[in-house]
């Protein structure tokens, strides 16, 4: 899936269809745009129907073949419908599991159950659901690229971010296992840690009371204190 430069760059992915979750803004939108500028037909997904529509409009204005649909990656049926949206474009070649949430910043012992569950549902189950629907298509056709997004914590523990960091550690293990399972099939499984990227995920972190002053430790994130 290497993107080339030069006069032919816009055609390097011509005829391929790429799905990007969490693509209405931020890193997901940037990846969808890059794929589209290199010739791919892109299918965007987000939990916000309005956000998807606005992002698709921006890409189409640049001459990119784009469509999208609302998708909660924690819901298997939504992810299956997203796969079908891509297949309606003729094929499915690239699937990027980008959708993710940061969780509440603070100690694990006082993390609300609903917040921890939300992280697990999006970052872990969302990644599993995406892989579960994309891989059978890829394996049947003998090719395809699955990309899972890592993040802080994928290589070790991060205090006060146990939900997010542990979820990204899981994504790394999950991705490496998929790579073993798909060896010699023609399917390629990638894990990508983009490093610290200033997006809404970083810029709007919610903190447990009394811990908002510690957020500077994770790269200058702004904070909303949970009350």
Indicate the low-confidence ranges by residue numbers. 220-227
Shape summary: globular
Q: Give the biggest sheet.
A: 6 strands, parallel
Strand coverage percent: 15-25%
Structural class: alpha/beta
**N-to-C span:** 45 Å
Relative helix content: 25-40%
Q: Name the strands of the widest sheet in spatial order.
A: 3-2-1-4-6-7
One letter per element, helices H and strands E, the order comes to: EHEHEHEEHEHEHEE
Give an account of the 3D structure.
Strand 1, helix 1 and strand 2 (41-46) form a beta-alpha-beta unit. The chain is of the alpha/beta class and 227 residues long. The radius of gyration is 18 Å and the shape is globular. It has helices at 26-37, 49-61, 76-87, 113-141, 162-181, 200-203; strands spanning 17-20, 41-46, 66-70, 94-97, 104-105, 144-149, 187-192, 205-207, 223-225. Helix 3 (76-87) packs parallel to helix 4 and helix 4 runs parallel beside helix 5 (162-181). The protein has a 6-stranded parallel beta sheet, sandwiched between helices. A 3-stranded parallel beta sheet has the order 5-8-9. It is built from 6 helices and 9 strands; from the N terminus they run E-H-E-H-E-H-E-E-H-E-H-E-H-E-E.
Topology (SSEs and partners):
Elements lengths: L16 E4 L5 H12 L3 E6 L2 H13 L4 E5 L5 H12 L6 E4 L6 E2 L7 H29 L2 E6 L12 H20 L5 E6 L7 H4 L1 E3 L15 E3 L2
List keywords for this structure.
globular, 227 residues, single chain, 40% helix, disordered C terminus, 6-stranded parallel sheet, 17% strand, alpha/beta
């Amino acid at each position: 899936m290497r993107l080339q430069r030069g006069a032919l760059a816009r055609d390097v992915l011509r005829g391929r269809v790429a799905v990007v979750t969490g693509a209405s803004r931020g890193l997901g939108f940037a990846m969808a745009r890059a794929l589209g500028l290199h010739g791919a037909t892109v299918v965007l997904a987000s939990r916000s129907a309005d956000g998807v529509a606005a992002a698709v409009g921006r890409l189409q204005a640049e001459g990119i073949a784009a469509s999208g649909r609302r998708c909660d990656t924690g819901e298997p049926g939504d992810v299956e419908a997203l796969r079908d949206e891509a297949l309606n474009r003729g094929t499915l070649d690239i699937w990027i599991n980008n959708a993710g949430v940061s969780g509440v910043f603070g100690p694990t012992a006082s993390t609300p159950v609903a917040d921890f569950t939300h992280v697990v549902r999006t970052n872990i189950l969302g990644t599993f659901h995406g892989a579960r629907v994309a891989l059978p298509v890829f394996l049947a056709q003998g090719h395809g690229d699955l990309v899972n997004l890592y993040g802080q914590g994928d290589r070790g523990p991060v205090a006060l971010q146990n939900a997010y960091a542990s979820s990204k550690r899981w994504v790394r293990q999950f991705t490496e296992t998929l790579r073993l399972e798909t060896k010699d099939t023609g399917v390629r499984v990638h894990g990508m840690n983009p490093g610290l990227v200033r997006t809404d995920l970083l810029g709007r972190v919610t903190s447990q009371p009394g811990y908002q002053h510690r957020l500077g430790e994770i790269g200058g994130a702004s904070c909303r204190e949970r009350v």
